[in-house]
Amino acid sequence: MRKMNIPNRGFEVIEYENRLENIQKLMYEAKMDAILLTTQVDIEYYTGFKSQFFQSPTRPWYVLIPSIGKPKAIIPTIGESGMRGTWIDDIQTWTSPNPEDDGISLLLSTIKSLMVNHKSLGVPKTLESTLRMPLEDYENLINNLTGIEIKDANKIMRRVRFIKSEAEIAKIRHICQITSQGFIDLEGFLRAGESEVENCRRFKQHLLKLGVDDSPYIVSGSGQEGYGSIIMGPTDKIIEEGDLFIIDTGSVFDSYYCDFDRNYAFGSIGDKTKNAYRVVYEATEAGFNAAQVGNTTSDIFNAMNDVLQKGGALGNTVGRLGHGLGMQLTEWPSNTAIDNTLLEPGVVLTLEPGMAFLPGKEMVHEENIVITEDGPEWLSIRAAEELPIIQ
Questions:
Q1: Is residue 105 part of a domain?
Q2: I want to staple 287 with a disulfide (CB 3.0 to 4.6 A). Which of 116, 224, 304, 306 is the partner?
Q3: Exposed, middle or buried by CB within 10 Å (0-12, 13-18, 19+), for 85?
Q4: Are residues 170 and 225 in the same domain?
């Protein structure tokens, strides 16, 4: 196993100050007095507050980004000590759960105090955004914000997260390298005659030994000559000779994800399956070569799709050929024919060409890259050029 340099956990305060400066510039342009954050990822991104307690749906959590000054936290008392360990110093709390008023009066009064210029509150509304609070409470909040315009903040928020800092890229590179080593090692302990679940469990245990914090996303599929899905499983299906087996993982280091897969064949496998593997491998190369500053996500899609079509693709059930990557397993944008997002240095993407090559059979390949001024860089260790066969 190659020696890996482990990035420091967390960030210096300057990282959060830069994020805040970037979003406040865009808020000024969009004429927003404040943005309301409710989700784990958004709150952590701007505050550094990291807690597994978001797994509990009982309590809502709120952070407001004002047009000037540091973010303001309005959170349950149970999280106060944790938030005070971040760079945030304006923290209001209430004892939660409180069905009669679960933080809404505090949130409402703070929002009103920030409506000084444009009478406008930003809330993430559009594709890939989530509101993490009771809908009844949200309706109550909005109904009491009379005269205040509610604007979509998602487009400017995703814009800030689109460009990763060097510190963020270091964490993504690290988790990609660990997971790549795990996939390399996996060839030595994949076994026919055992289930998808057993093989995936062994893989996850090995990744934990290598140093991932967690592997919350491990899916798999298998079948003779190919698989029919890349989002289900693992199941109790027994891996057999002649099966093609895919494992796709989103593993995490310090809140940052990798997201890529590997394919393995067991025993003898047909030429059409081997050829499909070569086609998606070559499509990934084409996408990589197109991932240049000044090009777009649609240029990447078209480069990969051209290879897939010439390689005999019967169709594409996924809808896109890769996506953004960072604190979430999938982030904006999408590599599609119509996305057309301009590529800039610091953008981290997955390249994920996939094709149906036999009726009901798919082949999907995925790698992780970062865009730099000098061209794209592999973050994951490139998969084998030919389909690995486990004997």
A1: yes
A2: 304
A3: exposed
A4: yes
Contact 208, 200 (CB under 8 A): no
Query: Is residue 80 situated within a structural domain?
Result: yes
What's the pLDDT tens digit per position in 24-71? 999 999 999 999 999 999 999 999 999 999 999 999 999 999 999 999
For residue 219, give both structure tokens: 């899916």
% of the chain surpassing 70 pLDDT = 99
Asked whether 48 and 83 are in contact (CB, 8 A), the reply is no
Radius of gyration of the chain (CA): 23
The count of domains in the chain is: 2
Per DSSP, 2 falls in state -
DSSP, collapsed to helix, strand or coil, labels residue 240 as coil
User: Tell me, what DSSP letter sits at residue 232?
Assistant: S
Residues 84 and 228 in one domain: no
Range(s) of the domain holding residue 64: 13-160
User: Is 152 in the same domain as 187?
Assistant: no
Whether pLDDT at 76 is above 60: yes
Does pTM top 0.90 for this prediction?
yes
Question: Quick one: tokens of 48?
Answer: 């550094």
Return the beta strands (E) in the chain as ranges: 34-37, 62-66, 72-76, 90-94, 120-123, 149-152, 214-224, 243-253, 256-257, 260-266, 323-324, 331-334, 348-351, 354-358, 361-364, 367-372, 375-378, 389-390
Q: Which residue from 353, 349, 336 is spatially nearest to 376, judged by alpha carbons?
A: 349
Q: In what side-by-side order are the strands of the sheet with 323-324?
A: 331-334, 323-324, 348-351, 367-372, 375-378
Contact (Cβ atoms closer than 8 angstroms) between residue 76 and residue 61: yes
Q: Report pLDDT for 381.
A: 97
Mean pLDDT of 250-276: 96
| Omega before 97 within 30 of 0, i.e. cis | yes
Tokens representing residue 106 in the block = 């505090």
Q: Do 197 and 98 sit in the same domain of this protein?
A: no
* Contact partners, residue 112, CB within 8 Å, separation at least 6: 145, 148
Q: Tokens standing for 99?
A: 């069905």
DSSP string over 313-371: --B-SSSSS-EE-SSSSSEEEE-STTT-PBP-TTBEEEE--EEEEETTEEEE--EEEEE
Neighbour tally for 157: CB within 10 Å: 23
